[in-house]
Amino acid sequence: AVFIPSLSGTEDLILTNDVSYIGFLFTYAYEYLFSDYGSALQATLGDALYDQRVQFGRITLFLRASEYFFTQDLFTQIFGFGFGSFTYNEWVFENQDRFFELTLFRGTFSGLLIILLETGYFGLYLHLHLFYIFYKSIRFNISHLKNPDFIRWSRILLVIFFIFLFDFFFYSIVLFRTLPMPLIFLIMYMSVFYVRSMDASYNVRKLN
Questions:
Q1: How far apart are CA 113 and CA 111, in angstroms?
Q2: What is the pLDDT of residues 20-47, one digit of tens each?
Q3: Longest Cα separation, the chain
Q4: What is the rounded distance in angstroms from the CA atom of residue 158 to the CA atom of residue 146?
């Protein structure tokens, strides 16, 4: 078995003569997302007990972790296991692999998955509601602002917002857990209302 190095497929590659390079990359990407113990890119559960590099693929982790979450009692499903229960903390050196200790599998968490596990349906609803308000505010600015520069900024903001969303739902937990990303997100949100007030001043000056 070969431990997952990166999605580029440039480390520890063994190409057979009857498989094309592009075909290998597609296979590698599939295994990267769906890898399980004993799969082409991963070692066994026994190896995982001693080596933290042995991890599930992103989709496999999401499915297994969701299945584990849905087997919990109703209170845990609503409020989660507690904020910070499974998040890596560089200041705490003990119990850093707690999720593996509970479930016997590990992998890279997306923001969506970690929010669901740690804060439950309640916390997930709050995050999704915040995203919805942010999106509606940006769309309002694009539709109602008069200053072309402010409209342009709102469109740029919308693109950055979707990048943040992609990262949150599918890739990592940096949006709300790693500085300065939460601060950047807050500044972006505040800028929505700042340009709205500036646009109002712009319209008053234009009328005068």
A1: 5
A2: 777 777 777 888 788 888 777 777 877 7
A3: 76
A4: 17
